[in-house]
């Protein structure tokens, strides 16, 4: 790969294809960043989104300059049960497991409560969110870099496509963030999408190739159906003049509520007669 540039119809087509592909592959990154940023205080959310996407772009460009090393990671490091595992495979497997863990944990928190605290009960910090974003940025960047290197020989073209695609994502991220967090059903759909992406990463790590169309087409269909549902609810609200929340996710279950529930459960002893009994 080199920085030379010779314009040709093939180069322009390759650039446009790579540009669109970078945006499509970056959507899951934007969704993940948006969901993580939503756990921070309002004044830090925009900063986390912008910094997360900037780090993703820097990571991807940095990996492009060591593309030969990235490609060398496809060589097997060891074998297990007759199956070879390379550095790339291990990164994809670990990244996929981490993505599934984070998405499932977020779903659990939204359904059972947990709010802006992690599983250990501590408030989520800005640094912790950025660290998680950076980890997934690296995982998402590996396949993107390998794909880009296989499509275009010119490093300059790839860098320009990456920078422009991240410019588009940076501009649209705040709208995606607002939309996802405004509609709980869309947020749950996005989390399910991240679980599927995690599964495909793990499968890819085990050399099980899943056609991306089998993942993205059903997700696109689900998004269209949800958009129609949102449109329908909006029309119904305008007709009735009232606002109806389609889904009410659980709020954090506090210790005080836990104590009240325990007290209520223990206040009725075994001597209490059954309901409806005549004394």
From TrEMBL:
Transmembrane segments: 12-38, 50-71, 77-101, 122-142, 154-177, 189-207, 213-230
Compositionally biased region (Basic and acidic residues): 238-248
GO cellular component: membrane
Record localization: Membrane
Record carries keyword Transmembrane helix: yes
InterPro entries (alphabetical): Integral_membrane_TerC
Entry membrane topology: Multi-pass membrane protein
Primary location: membrane
Pfam families, A to Z: TerC
Keywords: Membrane, Transmembrane, Transmembrane helix
Keyword Secreted tagged: no
Disordered: annotated span: 238-279
Alphabetized PANTHER family for the sequence: MEMBRANE BOUND PREDICTED REDOX MODULATOR, SLL1022 PROTEIN
Family of this protein: Belongs to the TerC family.
Protein name: Membrane protein TerC, possibly involved in tellurium resistance
Organism: Salinibacterium xinjiangense
Lineage: Bacteria, Bacillati, Actinomycetota, Actinomycetes, Micrococcales
């Amino acid at each position: 790969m080199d920085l030379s540039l010779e314009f040709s119809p093939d180069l322009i087509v390759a650039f446009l294809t790579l540009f669109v592909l970078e945006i499509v592959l970056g959507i899951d990154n934007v969704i993940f960043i948006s969901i993580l940023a939503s756990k921070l205080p309002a004044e830090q959310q925009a900063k986390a989104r912008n910094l997360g996407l900037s780090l993703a772009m820097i990571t991807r460009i940095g990996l492009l300059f060591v593309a030969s090393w990235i490609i060398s990671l496809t060589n097997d490091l060891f074998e297990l049960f007759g199956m070879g595992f390379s550095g790339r495979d291990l990164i994809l497997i670990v990244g996929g497991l981490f993505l599934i863990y984070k998405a499932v944990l977020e779903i659990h928190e939204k359904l059972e409560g947990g709010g802006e605290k992690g599983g250990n009960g501590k408030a989520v910090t800005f640094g912790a969110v950025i660290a998680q974003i950076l980890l997934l940025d690296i995982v998402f960047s590996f396949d993107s870099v390998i794909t880009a290197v296989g499509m275009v020989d010119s490093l300059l073209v790839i860098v320009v496509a990456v920078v422009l695609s991240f410019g588009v994502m940076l501009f649209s991220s705040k709208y995606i963030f607002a939309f996802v967090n405004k509609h709980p059903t869309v947020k749950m759909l996005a989390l399910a999408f991240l679980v599927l992406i995690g599964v495909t990463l793990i499968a890819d790590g085990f050399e099980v190739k899943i056609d991306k169309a089998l993942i993205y087409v059903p997700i696109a269909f689900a998004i269209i159906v949800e958009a129609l549902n949102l449109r329908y609810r909006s029309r119904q609200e305008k007709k009735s003049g009232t606002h109806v929340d389609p889904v009410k996710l659980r709020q954090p279950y506090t210790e005080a509520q836990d104590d009240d529930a325990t007290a209520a459960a223990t206040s009725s002893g075994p001597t209490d007669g059954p309901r409806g009994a005549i004394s």
